[in-house]
Amino acid sequence: MTVTVDLPAIQNAGNRSGISAVFSTMICVLRRLPMFLAARPKTPLRVLCVMAFDTLHVLRMSERMPRHRAKTLAALLDFGACTNADLDGKKFSEDDYQSAMRQLEAAGVGATVDEYVR
Question: Which of 33, 39, 48 is nearest to 93 (CA)?
Fold first, then answer.
């Protein structure tokens, strides 16, 4: 697996915004590392998605993404994967689907998710 990083924002050593963006990214990645061992999200790619959204949140809002929002995002990613598998006629875990749905309902976005699926 090859990972390439394009960092034009920090080519100029005096560009403080680029350096702070890289620093913020590193902090977000470190903060979400435990998600690789958690039950949700189910795949490493989804953990990387949460890390990316967390980084965007920090860069745009200048504050950390709350833990409950990251957990809701992880549940949305798992729910979306189950829904996509169902629509494609592929096998998926009904338990994972129901578990993600319960977590989304507890987060207060169940009605929005139901509307999206319909």
Answer: 39
Over the chain (118 residues), the average pLDDT of each successive run of 10 is: 47 58 90 90 92 92 92 93 92 90 92 87
Name the residue ranges covered by the structural domains of the chain: 8-117
Tokens 């790619």, located at residue: 45
Distance CA 85, CA 7 (A): 35
d(CA 94, CA 90): 12
Q: What contacts 24+ positions apart, CB below 8 Å, involve 17-25?
A: 21/59, 24/55, 24/58, 24/59, 25/55
Residue 114: CB atoms within 10 A of its CB come to: 12
What is the CA 36 to chain-centroid distance, rounded? 12
**How far apart are the C-alpha atoms of 53 and 118, rounded to whole Å?**
26
Q: How far apart are CA 28 and CA 70, in angstroms?
A: 11
